[in-house]
C-alpha cells in the first residue's frame, strides 16, 4: 500500500507527480529543484544558494514523512554542469554525517526542469 506525502513547506508539484510516496517503510521522493515553496519562484542567486534551497525543500518532504536526513539511504543528484560539483557537494555535505552518508550518484545532464542547475531525489527508510 502506498501513501502520498505532501507538505506545503516544499514546492507543490508542477506536473502529474507527488512530492513523495511512502511504500511500507520506504520513502521515494520526487526530485526537488530550487523553488521557494512560498512564492514558487526559483532561487538561483548562485549554485550554493540554489543547492541549499533544494536541500531545504527535501528536508521538508522528509519531515512530512516523519523522517530526517538520517533516514536517507540513497540520493541521486542531477547537475547541468559538472564544474559546479564541488560547490554543490560542499552544501550537500552539511546535511549528512560523512561516516553514515547515503549511497549516491551524481550525473551531469543536458537540461533540468525550468533549466535549473541542480535537482536531487532521495530514498529513505524508517
Automatic annotation (TrEMBL):
Gene3D superfamilies: RutC-like (3.30.1330.40). It holds the Pfam family Ribonuc_L-PSP. It comes from Winogradskyella haliclonae. Belongs to the RutC family. The lineage of its organism: Bacteria, Pseudomonadati, Bacteroidota, Flavobacteriia, Flavobacteriales. This is Reactive intermediate/imine deaminase.
Amino acid at each position: 500500500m502506498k501513501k502520498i506525502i505532501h507538505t506545503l513547506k516544499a514546492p507543490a508539484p508542477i506536473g502529474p507527480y507527488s512530492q513523495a510516496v511512502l511504500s511500507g517503510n520506504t520513502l521515494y521522493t520526487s526530485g526537488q529543484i530550487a523553488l521557494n515553496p512560498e512564492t514558487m519562484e526559483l532561487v538561483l542567486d548562485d549554485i550554493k544558494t540554489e543547492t541549499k534551497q533544494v536541500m531545504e525543500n527535501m528536508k521538508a518532504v522528509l519531515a512530512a514523512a516523519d523522517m530526517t536526513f538520517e533516514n536517507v539511504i540513497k540520493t541521486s543528484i542531477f547537475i547541468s554542469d559538472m564544474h559546479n560539483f564541488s560547490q554543490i557537494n560542499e552544501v550537500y555535505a552539511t546535511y549528512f554525517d560523512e561516516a553514515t552518508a547515503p549511497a549516491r550518484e551524481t550525473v551531469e545532464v543536458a537540461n533540468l526542469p525550468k533549466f535549473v542547475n541542480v535537482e536531487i531525489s532521495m530514498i529513505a527508510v524508517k
